[in-house]
Every structure is written in structure tokens, then in C-alpha cells.
Fold:
Amino acid sequence: DAEITQSPRHKITETGRQVTLACHQTWNHNNMFWYRQDLGHGLRLIHYSYGVQDTNKGEVSDGYSVSRSNTEDLPLTLESAASSQTSVYFCASSRDSWNTEAFFGQGTRLTVV
Amino acid sequence: DQQVKQNSPSLSVQEGRISILNCDYTNSMFDYFLWYKKYPAEGPTFLISISSIKDKNEDGRFTVFLNKSAKHLSLHIVPSQPGDSAVYFCAAMNVLQGAQKLVFGQGTRLTINP
Structure:
């Protein structure tokens, strides 16, 4: 079955370190997204990509970067982790059609100490 | 500024009764709306959607109603079952701004009591 997987599921890192969260999907979807979930805010869009070599900033992109070198993967990098980036991160993918849902990964819980 | 708001953080309903979850939005450019359901330690899963050209969409026990003039949508679950206990997120998007650039509400935790 096609799926979307995130790794690691849990991560503890220190302030100032660079961290990369992996996202891999096997649906061959062009669209991929990274969201963060925080209490009181729901899910907020960090970065998104509509295809290989395409990346765009979302609502809360400061301190994050992504790269899209192939269709399957969209890694999210925290350049210098801060305590404010402690959150649960969700990757999602979707088909090109506008009226289709996004499929989410299981999430990565990141703690910055 | 929260463009999509779910003002009830939690809702408790008896099994077999109707659950009504509400969502308000402020951006009149939103033209497609979705509801997602989320269990603990899992990612959100799609439940039901509605386009702004409709005012109602039904799928089994789930019905979404859209009131564009009030900028309000609601999700009805009838009858409610214990497996419906989860956090429900309302999401909105503008189709012309690109596929699936979703703006989410804060979520409502639904608890179904036996």
C-alpha cells in the first residue's frame, strides 16, 4: 500500500543544533507540505512544494528550510534549533487536483532543550 | 490573526446522539473547506469536504453544512459512536492560491460517552 512516513517519531535536541526531519511518500504525489501543531493554534503551514526543485514558504517558515530533489522526499531542516520550535511536526502530500484531500504522516514530536 | 476558528475546545456527547462541531472563518476568499479527524499519536485523516458552491455535503453519518453569508460551517455526526472520540480540525483553502494550502482551526476534542 502507498503511504507517507516520517522519521524519527520522537527527537530531543539541544538549542542551536541543526536538525533534519524526514518525510517520504510512495504515492508519487507532486504536492508535499510540512505543518506544525501547537496547542491553541491547530496546524500551521511551514513550507510546501508542488514538485521537484519547487519550494515555497508558508505561514511560519522562519528558522526552517526544505529541499525537493525527488518526488518522494521533502526533508525539513531546522537550521539552529530554538525552544520555540518544540512542537509536533506533520508532513502531508496530495494529488494535483484542487478538490482532493491531503494525506498526513504520523508526526514527529520534536523537543528542543 | 486566526482566519479559521473553532471556538469550542471540547465537546462531550452521549453515544447515539448527534454531535455538532462548529467552525467560523474570516477570509471571504476561502472556497473549499475540509474536516479532518485526529487520534492521539496519529496524523490527521480526511473526513469530509465541501465546496463553496454547495451548502451541504453528506457522507454516511457525517454531514457538513456551509453558510457563506455567516462564514460558518458545521459538522454533524449522527448517530455518534465511541470510535468518533477524537480531535476534529476544520480547514479552509482558496483554490486559486494553490492545491491544499490549508488553514486550520485550533481543533475541537470530541468525547462520546457510552
